[in-house]
Amino acid sequence: MKRLSILGSTGSIGVQALEVVRAHPDAFQVVALAAGRRLDLLAEQVREFRPQVVSVGKPEGAQELKEWLRGLPVKICFGEEGLGEVAAYPDAQLILLAVVGAAGLKPALAAVRSGKDLALATKEALVMAGALLTSEATARGAKLLPVDSEHSAIFQCLEGGGRAALKRIILTASGGPLRQYPKERLASVTPEEALNHPTWNMGKKITIDSATLMNKGLEVIEARWLFDIDVKRVDVIVHPQSIVHSLIEYVDGSVLAQLSPPDMRLPILYALSYPDRLEHPFPTLDLLQVGSLTFEAVDRERFPCLEYAYEAVAVGGTAPAALNAANEVAVELFLNREINFAQIPQVIEAGLRGHRSRSGESLQDILAVDREVREELSQTYRDKVRQAS
Amino acid sequence: MKRLSILGSTGSIGVQALEVVRAHPDAFQVVALAAGRRLDLLAEQVREFRPQVVSVGKPEGAQELKEWLRGLPVKICFGEEGLGEVAAYPDAQLILLAVVGAAGLKPALAAVRSGKDLALATKEALVMAGALLTSEATARGAKLLPVDSEHSAIFQCLEGGGRAALKRIILTASGGPLRQYPKERLASVTPEEALNHPTWNMGKKITIDSATLMNKGLEVIEARWLFDIDVKRVDVIVHPQSIVHSLIEYVDGSVLAQLSPPDMRLPILYALSYPDRLEHPFPTLDLLQVGSLTFEAVDRERFPCLEYAYEAVAVGGTAPAALNAANEVAVELFLNREINFAQIPQVIEAGLRGHRSRSGESLQDILAVDREVREELSQTYRDKVRQAS
Q1: What ipTM is given for this predicted complex?
Q2: Could you give all domains of chain B from N- to C-terminal order, each with its CATH number?
């Protein structure tokens, strides 16, 4: 239970803050309120949230409020002094400052001077006296927490979201070179077409995987293990520009994303230099030049491979190893022109559903399944090709 | 200096990893390489990067390489055993696994079993044996670092970027209700038009600030203090959908962003619950519904207020307080229909450039400037209005 003092409780931010408090009665308790106007609303807020102290702008207002709130155990004060009392109220742990304009400066100073953390919606205080406020906050160990959505965004990106409150991973997919091909065209796609990736310059295997969306399926499984998350909470979204490389959603609705030009040297550099970051001599992102980032749903009918990955995880055991082996065989057969593009999912489906599953996941089991699936599929499909020719 | 072992050095990822190493000779040293194909390229890599050990696929290849590299102090091995040696090379601190497909599983296991951190480009290893690899890594204290751009993105969002390598802050601006108004229309904009914000539902003062872009100027100054960053490294970009709330760019070219629907309750909830995150009962972001996120440059000619903020910071001392006071006066005059919309920047300019600057930043100085600017501007502009009528 965090005890809050809210200055500017009848303004736009104050009202929305009390909505947040109302939605989380176990997390927050309002111990002090201050408002300059809308005394009727303030009186309602006092009745609902039961603060210990409340401050209004003028002595007449305080008098009026006293009459309205007769019988309630609340101290009523007013003016600059009252605002100061609410801003540094000893029982409060966090002060939300949401008064309009320069009037917020003195209460902001009072809050940080009392060593309280300050959630700052009144940007004017920092504009007027940034050096003073930040140095006093540092000296007293008071945190400045931004409420402005922009600065909250920056703060969250700097801090990172952590894993505890992670709700969902959203993997982005370029959609590959065949994103806009109608279903009936897929059977006649050549290896050259499938290898012509629109945004990424990669090896052959992964480029074909990208064309079938099997790559995204493998990435769903990869995410399951890297981030210890149920695949039900791993979604895929098509983002043709390959600028947003993936997103994570938190339980509070906040989404974090990482962006850069589609250049594999960037994630390589990050992995090699982690936990540091090194200067990067390659071209960087220019959002003005990019102009627009678009998102669309995956067409799971034209590209069924993604589903097989979810299926493999649901089956468990050695099923993902069978899926992977079947996919490697299928890609090789396709690159050798032994099957057509539309047959790739068929080979994968056959490998996944036909394999003798082992519940164990020892290296021996995994390698045995890998070998069996490869042998069986290669035989089956080469025989088919032989019969057909 | 981090000592690297790279498996799959002649593939797409391997070649790009060596580009990264080449760009950072003081940060990385290659101590081991392995490749299955393209022996000529491998020989070149050995000559350039001078690893202590190198492995190829087949004994014939090893023999050939030995002849090419005669005289160089490099141990040459081959096959599964050679790959295992490079994967767990004792002198290496980080193993980059970038071989294609299932062939990566055994080296991945060898790397984590030797307790080495593993930068993983071969997703197939995790797909086949995720449980085994992750449990062995945990048992030996080996980190798994994703190289796939998607998983790198997720990893970076979870970790956050920190402040040390921060290069630039990019504040997004909706552009306000007048974003598409031609310059000659601005003088006749009514308070009602300026208060009609396209994406955010906010108080009057901030909504007018948003229409003039002064709000973004104040936010630039706010960012300067909250994140202790030179305003030269704080940029502004117009993003009309107000979904991406701001972005940060790191020295390595990676950009992190935070997204959510434009609902102030989200940053309020985050500020109140920080460092925890609480479940959020309000509507969350649906990128499929949003469809497109667009970005455009700020028109600094039509909206000069943003520049005044940079100017105020450059002047320093009490100039930002003068800027703020002038803006508060201007907004009030506009809302009271005493000046027109196009005069708002004029009032701000007059307040900023006309004020008697104080180099000190004591509360007393700041409050004195605030008072002086207000008195002077109110007088000047009310006199003007009186003369005109």
Answers
A1: 0.94
A2: 2-146 (3.40.50.720), 149-303 (no CATH), 304-389 (1.10.1740.10)
